Structure formats: C-alpha cells, structure tokens
Amino acid sequence: MVYCLRENDYLGENVMPLEAQLKAQFQSLSNLIRRDSIDLTTRSGSGHPTTCLSAADLMTWLFFREIRLDASNLDHPHADKYIFSKGHAAPLLYSLMYRLGYLEAAEMETFRKIGSRLEGHPTLRLPGVVAATGSLGQGLSIGVGMAEVYKREGRDQRVYVLLGDGEINEGQVWEAAMLAGSLKVDNLVAIVDRNKIQQSNFCDSIVNAEPLHDKFTAFGWEVARINGHDLDAVAEVFAQARSNRGKPFAIIADTEKGFPVSFLSGKLKRHGVALKADERDLAYGELPVGDDLDIAAFTVSKQNFAPLEKTAVKIDYLMNGSEFDASKEQAARAAYGDALKLMGGLSDKVWVVDGDVSNSTYSERFAQAYPDRHIECGIAEQNMISVGVGVAATGKVALANSFARFFERAFDQIEMGAYSQANLKVVGSHIGVSIGEDGASQMAMADCGFMRAIPGSVVLCPADYVSTFYLTREILNHDGFCYMRTFRGNRPVLYPIDESFPIGGCKVLKASDADKAVVVASGYVVHEALKAAEELAEKGLNLRVIDAYSLKPFPAEEIRQICEEVGGPAVFTLEDHYATGGVGDAVLEALNGSGIRVEKLAVTAFPESGKPEDLLAKYGVDAAALVKRVQEVLG
Amino acid sequence: MVYCLRENDYLGENVMPLEAQLKAQFQSLSNLIRRDSIDLTTRSGSGHPTTCLSAADLMTWLFFREIRLDASNLDHPHADKYIFSKGHAAPLLYSLMYRLGYLEAAEMETFRKIGSRLEGHPTLRLPGVVAATGSLGQGLSIGVGMAEVYKREGRDQRVYVLLGDGEINEGQVWEAAMLAGSLKVDNLVAIVDRNKIQQSNFCDSIVNAEPLHDKFTAFGWEVARINGHDLDAVAEVFAQARSNRGKPFAIIADTEKGFPVSFLSGKLKRHGVALKADERDLAYGELPVGDDLDIAAFTVSKQNFAPLEKTAVKIDYLMNGSEFDASKEQAARAAYGDALKLMGGLSDKVWVVDGDVSNSTYSERFAQAYPDRHIECGIAEQNMISVGVGVAATGKVALANSFARFFERAFDQIEMGAYSQANLKVVGSHIGVSIGEDGASQMAMADCGFMRAIPGSVVLCPADYVSTFYLTREILNHDGFCYMRTFRGNRPVLYPIDESFPIGGCKVLKASDADKAVVVASGYVVHEALKAAEELAEKGLNLRVIDAYSLKPFPAEEIRQICEEVGGPAVFTLEDHYATGGVGDAVLEALNGSGIRVEKLAVTAFPESGKPEDLLAKYGVDAAALVKRVQEVLG
C-alpha cells in the first residue's frame, strides 16, 4: 500500500498511510466542494449537480493534494494540466477553483449568466482551462497532444483528464486511447468516473461498456480500478499514477452519481437537473462539513513556477527560386509540403499532426525532416484534430493534415478547437472532382460552407505553387484557426516568386480595358477560368479573371468594385465544390444589393469516378462549360 | 477441426475436412481473382491492387462457399449481405462479381471510367452494394444496423464486413464494436484483413493496434485469429462464424499485403499503386491457375430466393386536435416526438436510432412505444448515423436523433449516407443560441450550410408545433435523405391543425397592402420576427413576415416574387445560426441579380452561456435587433 503524506514531494518517494485527521479533514473538504457544486446549479436553475458529486472525492484529492499548479497563474506553462472532458461537471471545477482561492465568492454568483467566466461548460474565459469541453469524447485526445509535447521536451508535467463513463461510448476516446498506448504517453492520466448513469438511462442499459479494465489494458494502458469514494484508494491510485512509467495510466473509479445524497445517489432522471432550494438544504444535511476544516493546509499543490516567455511564430521567409522548378506544373499539396518543411526549420514552434496520408498531403516532407515535432495519429481524424488542439495548447502552432474530405467527420472537433482559441491550422488536400478516379468518397465537395461559418476562421483555397507556398507562411504567422484546401493534380505556376498573398486578398490574373465580364474562381479551376478567358479572347470576348484564394476573409469590397467597374450582365463564379458555401456564395454576398447577377458554376450532383478532365466537364466546372455559359449570357 | 464440404448446407451441421481436389481448385480460383484485381488496376492505371491480394483468399472463400446470394438479384432482401468497409478493395469485389457471373467481361473494361458502375470505391450503382464505402471506418456500423434488423425480425441472414487493419484506427469501428457486443449481434461477422501495411507505413509504426484479439474480446466479441492465406484455416473459421451464437464474431486474419507476389508481398510504397503492364505479367507468373479450374462447381451459394415486396412509407395522418394542447406554448422537439410516436404506429417500416439524448430530442416517445424498432447507440454519433444507414439498407426508413450540434462530428457519415441513397432522416434538436445556459459547445450554429450543400438533400427548420408535426410526416414519406432541426424552448403555436406544409414551401404569416418590407425567418426566431412586426405595426410600419421552414428545396421563386411585390430598400433575414449557410444565404441566392439588398441578421461570434432571451439580444437576432435594423434601413 502506498499512501500520500500531507507534505510529500511530487515524485512519489516519500509516502505512508493517511493520517486519520487528514482523512476527516478531507471528507469535510470534499463535502464542501459538493455543496458548492449543488449550490451553483440550484441558484442558476440549471446545470449538472449529480455528475459533480460522483467525481468530487477524486477531483478534490487531485486538486488539493496531487496536481502542481502555479499559485498565481493557472495558465503557467510549467504547471500540470487538467481537462474536464466531461464538461458538464463544470460546477465541480468552479467549486474547486473557488476553494483553492482562484475565484472569489462574488464571481461564483455569475455562474451560467451572460458575461460570466463560469459558463455552462468550461471555456477559455476561465484561466487554467486549456480547451473548451462540453462536446464529449474530445478531452483525452487533447490530453494526449499536450502530454506528448511535454514528454518529448523532457518536461516534468502531467496531464489529468476526467472522463464520464457515458462519454467512453465515443470512438474518439478509443482513438486517443490507442494512440496514447502506442506512443506510451506515461505522463497522461485518465480518470473515468464510472458513475453508471447517463442522461437517459443506466449506462449499461444503453451500451454495455464492460469489461472496462480489459478494454484499457488491451489498448496499452496501465489500469487501476478503485472505489472512487474510498479515500484511501483514491490517495493510493493517484500515487500509483504519479510513479507509473512506460504506459499511460487509467483510473477506473467506481462511483455513484449523486453520492452520497440519499435521494440522488444512483437515481435516474437526475442528470442535468438542478436541485430546488429545499432539496439543496436537504442535501446539505447529508454532506457534513466539520467546523475544524482548515482548507489552507491542503494547498500544498500551489507552487510558484518561474515565468516562461511565450512568443508568437513570425516567419518572414521569401522564396529565392530554389524551392521548386517553376517550368514544371505543380500541385498545391507539393507547395504546402515544401513550405512546411522549409518553415519548420525556421521555428521550432511548428508542430505537425498527421492521419496516415502524409505521403498524399505531402506533409511527410516535414515529418521526415523534423520527426521530433511530428505526431502520426493514424486513420483517426477526430483524434488527430483534438491532438492538434492539445499541441496548440502547449504554445505551439499545430498543423493537421488529411484529405479535406475526411475532416468532415471531425467538424465538431474543429469547431471546438476554434472555439478554444487553438492556434490550429487544418490543411486538407484532394479537393473536388479534380481528384478523379477515386470517386466521391474521397472528394471534398462540401467543406467550404462549414469552415466559412466558423466565427473568426480563415479559409484559403490557392491555385498554384507560389500562392500555396506563401499562404502556408501566412497561416503559420496568423494567430488562430485557419483552414487551407490544396489540390492534387499538377497545374502551371501562375505567380512570380516575389508576389505577396495577404490573407483577405485576391489577384487579378487577366484584365484589359475591353473586358466584358468578370470571372471569380478559386483553387484548381482558376486554370480552367484562364483557359476559357483565353479561348474567348481569341473570339474577341475579353474576361477579367480573379483568383479568389481567400474565401474568408473574402475581399468583398475589392471584388465588388471590379465587378461594378467591368459591368456586364453577370459575374461568373467557378469552383470545384458543391454549389452551396463556396466562392459562388461569397461573391453573391459581396454583390448583395448591387443588382449584378451571379452565374454560379459549381458541382450539383454526387460525382462519380473518372478522369479529372472528364469529371470537370461532366459537372460543368471546366473551361468549356464556362465558355458556353459566358456565350449564352453575353449573347 | 471443422471443415466445410462442398455441398454442405448453411447451418454448419454437416462438415468434414477439405478434399485435396477442392483445395487445389480453390487455390486456382483465388489466384484468378487476384489476377483479375491486378488487371483491373493496371488497365485503369490507378487503384489499389495489393490490398485486394491480401484479402483474396478470405473473400473468395466467402463468396464462393459461404455467403448466400440470390442467383439473379444481388439486392434480394433475403440474401446474406457483404460490406467492403475497406472500400479501396473494390477491384477484389468486382473480380468476385465477375467470376460469380454477375458482371460481364465488357463491363470490367469500364473500371474507374466515367459512366461505369465499377467506380474507384464501391457505390450503389452496383447491385449488391448496400452502402457506398471508401471513407474508412463506417462499414462495421452499417453492418450492425443491418444485422440487428435481421435478428429482431427473426430472419436467417448474416452480414459480413471486410475491414482493413489501418481502418481500425478509426474510433467509429470501436463504437460499432461496443454496440455490437452489447446487443449481441451474433449474425454479424467482421473480417479484419491484418495485412500490416497502411498507406504511409507499416501499421504498427503508425499506431500499434495490438493486441487485437484482446481488443475485440474486451468489446464483447467472439474472436478467431487465423492465417488468412491458409485455406484450411479460412474454411474452418467461416464455419465457426456460421455456427457462432450469442456474440458477434470477429475473424482476425493475418495476411500479407500483395501476397503471394514476391515483389509486392509485405512491401511498402505499394499502397494505391497500380502495376505497370510488365509487372502485371510478372505477377501472373506467381499466380498459377490450373487448367482444370471448374468455377461453376463453386457457385453453391447462389440460390433463388422468393421475391419480397418492398413498399414505400406512405403516411397520410391528419391532426385532429388531440395531439397537443394548442393553448400552450410548445417546443418543436415535442411536436417531433409526438409525431414520431403517432406515425410510428402507422407503419412498421419506421425505425429510430438514438444517441443517449432521446429524453432531450423527445424521440423517447417513439422508443417507449416501439422498443422493437428502436436502437439505442449511446453517445457515439458516427456509429449512430451509419447504423441508421444500415437500417435503411434493409428497406426501412431510419430516423437518427441527437442535439443538432453533435451531428457535426458525423458529417462525413451523413454525406456518405446520402450518397448511399439511404432513406435516412437526421433530426437535430437544440439549435442555436436559444438553447441558453449550456453554452456554445451544445449549440448547432453551423449545420445548415453543410446540410444544404449535400446534393438532393431536404433541409427543414420549422417554427411551431403544427409545422414540425406535419414536416415529420413529410420526411417520413420522402424517399431520401432529409435533415430537420428542432428547437428546445416552448413557443406559441402558429398554425391551424389543417394547414399543409409541403417540402419546398413557405408560409406568409403576416401581410397587408401597406407592407414596407419583407422579413424572412426560419425556426425559433420566426416568433421574434412576428414580435418585431407587431411592434413596428403599432408605429405604422408594416412588415410582411415569411416563415421559411424549407431551407432546401428553398421556395426561391415564391420569396422573390413576394420581395419584388412588397419592394422596399431591403429584405431582412433572421436566423438563430451563424451568418454563413442558412436562411440569409438562401435568400441572397433567391434574390440573385434582383438588386434587392438582403439585411442579414445572424450570429457572428462564438456564443456564450446565458438566458435564451439575453443571448438572442446579445447576438442581435431578437425582435429588438430586428426593429432597430428595420428602422435604421427604412429611416
């Protein structure tokens, strides 16, 4: 048996059985935290009290005895990290913060009210929160990302992740578990609050998750199963976790939802239901707090770490012509891979996460050069994104790569990452029907609308090597969420190597005083627009061609001015994307109220397999389709 | 040891060791299938030959000896079903179909060409394919849905799912595995082709998936691990699978990618690379096919099943007033739950899949009434959607429910479902900031753009009880993918119970000859639009208010006519959704080129926690914001 002393250090060397006095004190403290959690939800009339009660003994011990926090700065980069992956236990977190002295009583009154840092689920508004939670199943992945960075950098920091036992239905938990086991992330501790009740029913009546111990073991974890309300067991298991080496550590804590309150404990229909005031008072009666409780004596975990400087990435690389052969056609993905490798050498803050297909996205060029800053996550896109969010939470810029299509299964994780203010860049290759023979299941056709909808997002879709190269630099330097889509096939280089591509800009690729209409295109099909314009020019019909590489921010004012200047019965848009959410819709918005009609050329059916040129033709997004439409409209 | 006889029945009673002659014949057949798979990819210059070779022995035995197919109709509802979840093994499937006589040689020439049924990954164009694959990790879930329906209906049918060993990185596989284990779906057989090589590297260098046997065991499966190139073992394991009862059955087949061709077998950099013609010929030399091969003798699995009538759902329920209390405010989700329960009683083709939160989406009202047609999938949205696709593939209409936000992590699965022509209805509750205190992680804010982008989709967002009730009927009757968003809070009933709500329609809620402008709103905030209109009417400023409940098909022509008739400097749109992809963009498109400006009121920042009314006000999508904007614009 290994028990903690009150004054033990954090290396697990100096331990002995718990003193009776400490135990009594702790029981009072844990009950006080329970009372606070109940009170928060009762006063706000909403929230999840019972899920706080089940985890209270575990998390109170963790926060008051185990975890190393900075006394003044919860966000200190050298502190241990905690993630309430079961984000609906937010009141428990806030109660712990309050009793640890990080929150004042007055702020506790603001819970779930507009303007408060104490939101319904934990958000970045509150110091110490590394990523917003509330959409279940993402916290363990975030923890893997953080812990892996600490491990590789030789930093003595642990990451504790609190999971619900309903939450472990989510496959992303098992993606994270598999990766953590494979990487042997032994500074990661998962705490599964096995309280046996989900929102709608008993867990095992919904999906039987047992044998849970065997599951984590089979996924490469060291596992301990304890009674999560037995203080001796709780103390012991955290000491075990602390001295554990070689594998990630899972604590499966059998608890009761609502424990120990008689009318809550193990009862259904209490999930997400705040207690009425009279129920709260009854509950308090079953949560005794001794008069002699000395909270200050517990706060051994608060230390004063040295400050650590945090600098943003600022890369000012200019191309010199050695990067590529400008005489050859190039794929956007190749430019991305080259830029990533070159710029990865200029800042060690650049980290990359991959999903097996790095030899398709060309992020392998970075991976091979900087394996110490590369995390291969396998074919598990949800986990990859959230691992990236975790990497970013350690102060890095994290780039996540896959086929753009496969990110669709991680849109929730991406939105949570942007919401978490993660410095995350998502780069998707293989956009549109122009990938050809592999067929619709591999084509990103519906990505732009979602990505553009995310508040504050940057969405880029470059058309050649040079612009892709420089836009890679721009997203590295931009502090916040960016999405860039790259294409698969080789296409001519459009720009000189000293061209600049600011986020929010666009390029006029072809212009004359005789232009009769404007074409706005984005990505791969910019080349089709140019081809059409050349063909029509030979027939005496001149088009102005715009490369709208920045879908968000969209250069609305500039494009509107050009369209108004050129005039004509319509503006033409061309995109290798479905008709909703892409450049056509962006131009529609830019021309809002102008009276200028937008003739949108986009894909409107599920594509099939075939040669890229055949598909572009079939779905009406190639040069010939544009020529035809322009001639129809311009007569 | 249990071996199959050539003429055994399918109940596993009558078995003995393989004859030597059969074994030799089979080896020839299996090599012929391998040759075909190589040839397809060589001739098309793309595709994945090596992954076909590893699975060839397993799948050739399965298709020629085990599976029960109808001789003339691969889609026969009484046939066994197969899912190539590793969809890039499509050439193997096509080669099997060819040698079984379902495909002609001429059609084999069309592989990966435009217009072909033989696409890069399997699609519904080809008979026998129950769902399109190619986006990995979804097939086992589809199999669970199908097998569970067969089991509950007492139908003696098995579902075989072929998985890659890279694919099992996907958490969705473990979501499906957990549910299958929990439900004891013992007519489901997973075949894991453990060929040890993924696209970019050896599997275990990417993510170590071992011990794989322990993983499936811990998830509640019966597991057999075999050498997937040992014919005796292959024969035995399928016999075991056939007689297995009480648990789903997993075959983990150790194979070699590219087996047995010396220059392919176990080699990296051969994933997704077609052989050149000379390599193909070399490979043929290592794939001997005996002159005495008698393929016809193998086709014992092709039977003639009785035809089964398949009828569409056609529910003509009309409300009679007993459904709800019209004097009380009602939530859209309540109308959905009531309609689902009522109409679930009118057609036993209606099935429902849930993700734990049925007491929030109110689908529990169906679940309690018809538990035999309800599958609870737990907190695992990707699996839930694909289980729904599987249920639909058995000829049912499948409704999948969760908070609309949580579907974002399953957008790929949803798009694959629509692409698979599944009769799937996705119904998301808790839309927008109007859910209140739970905060942004629970709010669907970016769903409409993606759902509208999907080809052929129907997207609905009703504003009251009656419209939600009838639109539930409409999506049940509509053959194809539909998405409906329902709101959480209670709001007044707007319509009489005999109103009709066709898909593609809209409703004018307020109109007069004196109208000065049009407001188009959707969902919860229709009530805010009405409130604003009443307030402004008192000041002598009349608005025409439109309830745009059908976001797709959008009644563009009707709304454009109304806007042109009413006139005014702008049309106002109001939505509890981000500014991209929703009703504002739909109206922009409807008014394309008209010169009428759209004043879009939508949410443009990540929302916080708070009371619904406070949030609607803060993000500028309530009646007051609309009044202010209208007054600013109309002077």
Automatic annotation (TrEMBL), chains A, B:
Question: What molecular function terms (GO) are annotated for this protein?
Answer: metal ion binding; thiamine pyrophosphate binding; transketolase activity
What name does the UniProt record give this protein? Transketolase
- Cofactor(s) essential for the protein: Ca(2+); Mg(2+); Mn(2+); thiamine diphosphate
Q: Which NCBIfam families match?
A: PRK05899.2-5
Q: Pfam families of this UniProt entry? A: Transket_pyr (PF02779), Transketolase_C (PF02780), Transketolase_N (PF00456)
Keywords of the record, alphabetical order, are: Calcium, Magnesium, Metal-binding, Thiamine pyrophosphate, Transferase
- Quaternary structure and interacting proteins, as annotated: Homodimer.
Q: Where is the Transketolase-like pyrimidine-binding domain?
A: 330-493
Q: What CDD domains does the annotation carry?
A: TPP_PYR_DXS_TK_like (cd07033), TPP_TK (cd02012)
- Kindly list the GO CC terms recorded for this protein: cytoplasm
Q: Does the keyword Cytoplasm apply?
A: no
Task: Write out the GO biological process terms.
Answer: glyceraldehyde-3-phosphate metabolic process
Report the source organism: bacterium (Candidatus Blackallbacteria) CG17_big_fil_post_rev_8_21_14_2_50_48_46
Q: Which Gene3D superfamilies match?
A: 3.40.50.920, 3.40.50.970
Name the family.
Belongs to the transketolase family.
